[in-house]
Amino acid sequence: MKKRKNHSPEFKAKVALEAIREELTLAELSKKYDVHPTQIGTWKRAAIENMAATFARRGAAPEQVSAADVDKLHSKIGQLVVERDFFGQCLAPVARDARQKMVSKDHKLSVRRQCALLTLVRSNLYYEPKGESAENLRFMAIIDKQFLETPWYGSRQMARHMKRNNHACGRHRVRRLMRLMRLVPIYQEPNTSKKHPQHKIWPYLLRNVVIDRPNQVWCADITYIPMQRGFLYLVAIMDWFSRKVLAWRLSNSMDTAFCIEALKEALAKHGTPEIFNTDQGSQFTSGNWIDVLSDAKIKIRMDGKGRWIDNRMIERLWRSLKYECVYLHGFETGSQARSGIGKWLVLRFTRFADKAG
Fold first, then answer.
1. Tens digit of pLDDT for each residue in 12-24?
2. Residue 37 burial (CB < 10 Å; 0-12/13-18/19+)?
């Protein structure tokens, strides 16, 4: 076994100096001093990198970081970690669509880092939804019509109904489409209400309450509106006593913004009610919706499990609207749907007022 050579610092400096002069190649220097060319190259780089230290003032101690500065840096790192966690917790209730809009490709932070801070999956930024197929839209219209007739049908019963009518639509597809349309059967199932851990559920306030005047209790609900090539969502604000629709909005997504627009319009035109009643949908438990009601000093009330009967007035409105307007016209665009639904509501409540008078 060949014994490893230990070269002195003086020898290394001499060889490195000749390598820096570049009079001889590394191969020639290797042959001259019996040192591997790679080793000579390493000594050359080290000599060049440490050359500045040769001209430093004698006795000058290398710059050192004080313990106080280290403690200060550690404290700053801890503060940034706490602030990052706080930022993440505050963004948790925010809808994913809203967080995706916060990502900027022109920001100094990379898109990957922005997604990590906003708890987003980066691939979702580039995903473009394809929408439902024509067959699924046809099935949704059939399910919606049948649900108005038999609102106690769950996915199993609805799938059997589809099979009886020779529609190739199994239970799993029926269940997904019913969830998409927000169709929930009126019977109570065990442990079906999964509350958002950061959304407050408000108490029940209408037990044994007599509704005998306008603006005593308002309610709100969202329904699915089938179109020729897709679907929209409709939210309506209704007065319990007069059964009048105070405001409504159409949207192509289930965000909270269009619900809040309808609520603000109803408050501006008709004043404030004493109590506002909704179900426990995420739009009606969100912070933005609750803030509008709290600022107006309105008592907030939410349906509990099995209290489907509390929304029977507005559910009856949905049935009439769909049979008398939506299914007959088969709207093609959102503007046509807004115009048609608006005309139907005006005509309906004009007849209602004449009948009441």
1. 888 888 888 777 6
2. middle
